[in-house]
Amino acid sequence: MKQVAAFANHFHKSPRVLGIEEIRVFLLYLARMKKLSSSSKNVTVSALRFLYKVTSGCKLDIEKIHFARQERKLPVVLSSDEVAQFLKAIKNKKHRVILMTVYATGLRVLEATRLKVSDIDSRRMTIRVRQGKGKKDRYVMLSGKLLTVLRDYWREYRPCSWLFYGESKNAPLSPETVRQVCRLASYESGLKKRVTPHILRHSFATHLLEQGTNLRTIQVLLGHKSPKSTTVYTHPHNHQQSGKSSA
Predict the structure, then answer these.
(1) pLDDT > 90 in the chain, percent
(2) Do residue 44 and residue 120 come from a single domain?
(3) How far is Cα 224 from Cα 243, in angstroms, rounded to an integer?
(4) Cα–Cα distance list, 151 to 115, 135, 158 (Å)
(5) Contact between residue 189 and residue 88 where contact means Cβ atoms under 8 Å apart
(6) What DSSP designation does 141 have?
């Protein structure tokens, strides 16, 4: 394994003659000099643990070498004005509408590209999400504003099965196309924040929380299996940098 080779090359010695102290020095080197993330450092820890516990036969108390704690980064959140500025930079209506849908519903980009015309229920004001993450169906809310936008889009594009079709009406728009649109619009909008479909999803959740929606409801709308995934939106930093939802 390349991690073991890097460890040996760092000291110019065989791992058989190296011990706990050298491992600690090497991990410190990876963190301070190589600037590796916790997950990357943990790959090295796993490799060295396997080496000393399974393959080398050395009597080394490798359990003293602990895995690094994973960094928990707060999601970037756009204000409602920033969302409007971003969407305004998208000239293609289909691309603009699918990203409006992501923001107004909190859908994942794959879920949005897989929407069908029949998933839009204007009577119940809901959108059906088929086989989302975890292979589970769920329903998300359909606002009156988004319904108006979708109806205008339908009149122009006349989708048959897939709501947001690609080059052919028989195939959905690809998630990568949506991500590319995001990258271009993020640049052309002049925003200093990087915008991705997932950041629009984060913004949706944060704006709901600011409006008083409880975490359990947000968890269901986002399709989170665990409430722990939703609690990140309760951090005060998110409330300070975002505004109210506009959709």
Answers:
(1) 52
(2) no
(3) 23
(4) 15, 28, 10
(5) yes
(6) E
- pLDDT band with cut points at 50, 70 and 90 for residue 200: very high
Same domain assignment for residues 160 and 232: yes
C-beta neighbour count of 199 within 10 angstroms = 22
Q: What is the DSSP letter of 53?
A: I
Euclidean distance between the first and the last CA atom of the chain, given in angstroms as a whole number: 50
Classify residue 116 by its DSSP letter. Answer: B
Same domain? For 97 and 47 the reply is no
Look at residue 144 and tell me whether its pLDDT is greater than 70.
yes
pLDDT tens track for 25-76: 998 888 888 888 888 888 888 888 888 777 766 767 777 778 877 666 667 8
- Which residues are known catalytic residues? 108, 133, 198, 201, 224, 233
Q: What domain range is 199 assigned to?
A: 80-241
Mean pLDDT of the region 107-111:
95
Q: Is 25 inside any structural domain? A: yes
- 201 and 232 Cβ atoms separated by less than 8 Å: no
Enumerate the H helices of the chain as residue ranges. 2-11, 20-32, 38-50, 80-88, 93-105, 109-113, 144-157, 175-188, 197-210, 215-222, 236-241
Alpha helices in 118-168 (DSSP H): 144-157
State how many domains the chain has: 2
Whether pTM exceeds 0.70: no
pLDDT band for position 131 (cuts 50, 70, 90):
confident
DSSP per-residue string spanning 169-223: TTSBPPHHHHHHHHHHHHHHTT-SS---HHHHHHHHHHHHHHTT--HHHHHHHHT
